[in-house]
Design brief:
This protein has helices spanning 46-59, 78-91, 104-108, 112-120, 135-140, 147-159, 178-192, 209-215, 224-237, 264-277, 280-286, and strands spanning 17-20, 22-23, 42-43, 65-69, 97-102, 126-131, 164-170, 196-201, 243-247, 256-260. The protein is α/β, with parallel strands linked by helices. It folds into two domains: 1-124, Aldolase class I (TIM Barrel), CATH 3.20.20; 166-292, no CATH class. The strands form two sheets. It has an eight-stranded mixed beta sheet. The protein has a two-stranded antiparallel sheet with strand order 2-3. Helix 2 (78-91) links the parallel strand 4 and strand 5 (97-102). Helix 7 packs parallel to helix 9 (224-237) and helix 9 (224-237) packs antiparallel against helix 10. The longest helix is centred in the middle third of the chain and has 15 residues, at 178-192. It is globular and about 55 Å long. The two termini are 23 Å apart. Bound molecules: iron/sulfur cluster. Iron/sulfur cluster (SF4) binds at residues 25, 27-30, 33, 35-36, 71-72, 103, 129. Its cofactor is [4Fe-4S] cluster. This is Radical SAM protein. InterPro entries: Aldolase_TIM, BchE-like, Elp3/MiaA/NifB-like_rSAM, rSAM, rSAM_sf. Keywords: Iron, Iron-sulfur, Metal-binding, S-adenosyl-L-methionine.
Length: 292
C-alpha cells in the first residue's frame, strides 16, 4: 500500500482498511494542530488508489469498512468521491461503509443530491472535528466554521441519512471556561444528533499558533481538574439516546467510555472520584500529551 506522511485514523477504525486518497489536510489552519505541518495538501490519483485496492484485495478476504486517509478527505468533490466509492465496490463488493474525516465546509461544498448519492454508494459515519459548541472558541482556534454553519450542515448530513461522529476537545476554551464550553457543546450535540461522541483533551504542541498565543499571554490552559469538570458537565448535559461516549484516548487523564444515557451515572461517578483524588502536580510530572 502506498502512504505519504503520517497516517492518522480514529481509534475505532483500527480494523478498517486505510486507503489514502488525500495527503495532509486542505484546511491545516487550526491553531492547536500540528498533524499535517510536514506535508503539502494533495490529492492521490485514481490510478494510484486503484493500485492500492488491487494490492489490498490480495491481503484481505473480506473488507467491510474502508477509512479514507487523510485529514479531511471529504474535501474531495462529489464526483471524485463517487469514482473512489465505485472502485472500492468493484474490488470489495462486500464493503458496507466508506468513512473519513470531514469538515463542516466539506459538507457545505456538496449539494443535497450529491450527499444522497454518496450515501447510496456507502459513504457514512463521517468524523467531524467540531472541538466545541462555542462560537468564540471555534473562531479563536480557526476551525473554519461557525456554530450556525455546523448546525445547518450537520442537519443536511442527517437529512441525507449520513451519520456523523462528533470529535470534541476538552480544555479548548481555556482556563475558567470549561463548564460554559461544555454546556454550549452539549447544546450543539443535542441539536445535531451525532452517532458517537469522541472526546480528547487539548495538548499544547511546540511550533503551533496555540503555543505562540500562550507565550504571548493570549491564552491560558485549563487545569486538569477543570478538564475533568468540563467532561462531567458535558456528560450531564447530553440528552441523546443510545449514543456511545468515547473518551478513551492518550490525551485524556481518565479513560472513560460508555453508552448514554445507560452508563451516565457510572461515568459521572468515575469522574467525580477522579476529581476528588486528582493530584495535579504528580500528573504534570508523569503525563505527556502527544498530538492526535
Ligand atoms: S484539526 Fe483537523 S481540520 Fe484542523 S488543521 Fe488539524 S487536521 Fe486539519
Amino acid at each position: 500500500m502506498h502512504y505519504t506522511g503520517t497516517i492518522y485514523r480514529p481509534p475505532v477504525e483500527a480494523d478498517s482498511l486505510l486507503l489514502q486518497v488525500t495527503v495532509g489536510c486542505a484546511h491545516n489552519k487550526c491553531t492547536f494542530c500540528s498533524m499535517y505541518k510536514d506535508v503539502n495538501f494533495s490529492i492521490e490519483r485514481l490510478e494510484q488508489i486503484e493500485k492500492d485496492l488491487m494490492e489490498a484485495r490480495t491481503y484481505h478476504d473480506r473488507v467491510e469498512r474502508v477509512f479514507l486517509v487523510n485529514g479531511d478527505a471529504f474535501v474531495l468533490n462529489a464526483d471524485y468521491l463517487k469514482a473512489i466509492a465505485t472502485k472500492i465496490r468493484d474490488y470489495f463488493p462486500e464493503c458496507k461503509t466508506i468513512t473519513m474525516y470531514a469538515s463542516i465546509q466539506n459538507i457545505k461544498a456538496k449539494r443535497d443530491e450529491e450527499l444522497i448519492e454518496l450515501r447510496r454508494l456507502g459513504i457514512n459515519d463521517l468524523y467531524v472535528g467540531l472541538e466545541s459548541g462555542s462560537s468564540d472558541v471555534v473562531t479563536r482556534i480557526n476551525k473554519g466554521h461557525s456554530i450556525q454553519e455546523a448546525k445547518e450542515q450537520l442537519e443536511r448530513l442527517n437529512n441525507a441519512n449520513i451519520n456523523h461522529m462528533a470529535l470534541l476537545m476538552l480544555g479548548v476554551a481555556g482556563k475558567g471556561k470549561g463548564v460554559e464550553n461544555a454546556k454550549l457543546t452539549a447544546e450543539l450535540l443535542n441539536i445535531t444528533k451525532p452517532k458517537l461522541v469522541w472526546v480528547g483533551t487539548l495538548g499544547v504542541i511546540a511550533g503551533t499558533k496555540l503555543q505562540e498565543e500562550i507565550i504571548a499571554g493570549r491564552f491560558e490552559e485549563a487545569t486538569e481538574i477543570e478538564n475533568l469538570i468540563e467532561e462531567k458537565t458535558l456528560i450531564e448535559e447530553i440528552q441523546l439516546k443510545n449514543i456511545p461516549f468515547y473518551g478513551v484516548h492518550n490525551t485524556n487523564a481518565i479513560p472513560l467510555a460508555g453508552m448514554l444515557p445507560r452508563d451516565k451515572e457510572k461515568m459521572l461517578m468515575i469522574l467525580e472520584d477522579g476529581i476528588n483524588d486528582f493530584d495535579e502536580d504528580a500528573f504534570k510530572k508523569t503525563f505527556k500529551r502527544i498530538p492526535r
